[in-house]
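Hi R.,

Here's the chain you asked about this morning:
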Amino acid sequence: MSRSPDPAESTADPALAALQTALRAEHAAIFGYGRLGPELSGGRRQRAVRDIEAHRARRDGLRRMVLDRGGVPERAAPAYELPGEPDGAEAAARVAAQLEWATARAQLALAAVPDPEVRAAAGAALQDSTLRALSWSEAEVPAWPGYPDDAFAGAPSPSPAPAAD
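And here is the predicted structure, written out as tokens:
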């Protein structure tokens, strides 16, 4: 039996804290996809199976990275709150997209870690989560995947260059 994660571990190493946050997001996505399965059929169900396997692989990779840094990977909670009720195929697809955006946000924070190996893994995971979110929602690609829609509200916009004569 492994010990519970020590909160002091995360404060001593910001990379470890970001890894644990990303690991929690993967645990939540795995739980969420498990809840979506009964609502899906055909191609959507096959996609959900592929996606949950991708999240399991990402989770396992994050666990290894936490262990490599001397941390104790956080265990999955018994349940997670879903970003909506998956009551039907369309609602399940919306929930799947939201699960992917949540993992993208966690990976975005992880991409800020100075360790090149961690950054590379986070960049690949951010791309994967963004593509999966778009495949579920069929929405347009946001300008900054992983950031909230209003993250840059109020930021100054660059002025266009004056036209050449």
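One quick note: The first helix runs from residue 7 to 12.

Cheers,
M.
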